[in-house]
Amino acid sequence: MESVLQWGLDFIRFVQKCASPELTVIMRIITEFGGAAMYLTVIPLIYWCVDEKKALRFDVAVLISIWVNITLKFLLDQPRPFFAGYDPSVGIVIERMGGLPSGHAQTSLVLFVIIASWIKKKWATAAAAVICLLISFSRIYLGVHFPTDIFGGWILGGAILCGYFLLSGKIEALLVKGGFRAGMIACAFLSFVMILYLPSVELLMPGGTLLGMGAGYCLNRRYVGFMSADYIDRIGILQRSFPNIAKYLILLVRFLLGITGLVLIFIAVGKLIPQMSHADHIYANRNLFGFIRFALAGLWVSVGAPWVFVRLRLAGQQKEQ
User: Fold this and answer.
1) Of 222, 243, 278, 290, which sits 20 to 30 A from 70 (CA to CA)?
2) 57 Cβ partners below 8 Å, 6+ apart?
3) Please, are residues 141 and 15 in contact by the beta-carbon 8 Å criterion?
C-alpha cells in the first residue's frame, strides 16, 4: 500500500509543477462544486422549483452517499498526502478527516449523473463527465487526495448510482402504498441507522437532514399538498402576457424566500448550540443540537417553505387523499 501511496504522491508533485496563483484560484472554485455548499443549494432548488418527488429521491441518494463516505473515512483512516510522513508541502488546502474515499469525487458523480439522467441529452451527459473529472482533478492539484482516493470515490459513487436507478422508484412506490405512517417510520428508521455509528459530528448532517426531508415530504403530501411543477395562474396580466417570465419569476421568488428561511434556521439554531467543551454532557448537547439543526433544515425545505409558497399563492396544491 505504501508503494501505491508513494506513486500517488509523485503524481501530485508532477501535477503541481504547473501550479500558479491564478490556476490555484480556479481549482479552489472548481472544487467547491463537489462540496457541501453545492448539494445544500441544489437539493432545495430541485424540491422547490423542479419536482419534489425527484428531489426526494435525489436527496436520499446524495445523503446516503455522504453517510457512506464519511463512515468509511473513519473506518479506513487512510492518510492525506500532506499528513506527516508524506509531504506537508503539497497541501494547498487542508482537510481534517481521512482521505479514502474522496467525498468530492463520490458525491459529485452521484449528483451530476442523476441530474444529467433527468435532462436526457448527450450534452448533459458530457457536461456531467467533464465536471466530475475537473472536480476530481482539483482535489489532486490541491494536494488533498491521492489518486487512489479518487478511484475509491468513483467506485462507491457508481455503486450508489446503480442502487438509485434500480431501486429508487420501487422504494417510493412501496412508501406511497404504505401510506403516511409507513413513510414516517421508514425515514425515522433510516435516520437512526445513519447515526447509530457516530465517530464524528459530521455524520449528524446526513442523518438529521434525511429525517427532516423524509418526514417533511410525508407531511407535505398529507397536509400541504405543495406541487413544485404547478406554476399558478394568479398573477394577472403578467401571466397572460408573459407566461415564461411569470413562471421564472415565481421560481426565483420561491428560491429566495426558501433559502432565506434556511439560512435563518441555521443561524438561530447555531446560536443555541453550547460552546465547545471537553465535558461529556456538553459534547452530547452539541450532538443533539447539531442533529436538530439539520432535521429542522430538512423540514423547512420539504414542508415549511412549501407551506409558505402555497399560502402566498406561489405554488399549486393537491393534498393526498
Assistant:
1) 278
2) 164, 168, 169, 172
3) yes
Using CA atoms, how far apart are residues 130 and 255, in angstroms rounded to an integer?
A: 27
Diameter over CA atoms, the chain: 69
Q: 105-119: b or e for each residue (b if 16 or more CB lie within 10 Å)? A: bbbbbbbbbbbbeee
3 state DSSP class of 180: helix
- Spatial distance between the Cα atoms of 97 and 232, rounded to a whole number of angstroms: 46
Q: Specify the amino acid at residue 211.
A: L
Give DSSP secondary structure letters for 113-165: HHHHHHHT-HHHHHHHHHHHHHHHHHHHHTTS--HHHHHHHHHHHHHHHHHHH
Q: Read off the pLDDT of residues 189-239 as tens digits, 9 standing for 90 and up.
A: 888 888 887 767 778 889 999 999 999 999 998 899 898 876 554 444 445
CA-CA-CA-CA torsion sign (275, 281, 285, 288)? positive
For cell 415564461, name the residue: 244
What's at 78, amino acid-wise?
A: Q
SS3 97: coil
CB 218 within 8 A of CB 52: no
Distances (CA, A) of 191 to 28, 179, 195, 196, 284: 32, 19, 7, 9, 18
Query: pTM for the complete prediction?
Result: 0.85
Three cell numbers written together for 221:
403530501
What's the pLDDT tens digit per position in 5-33?
888 888 999 999 888 989 999 999 999 99
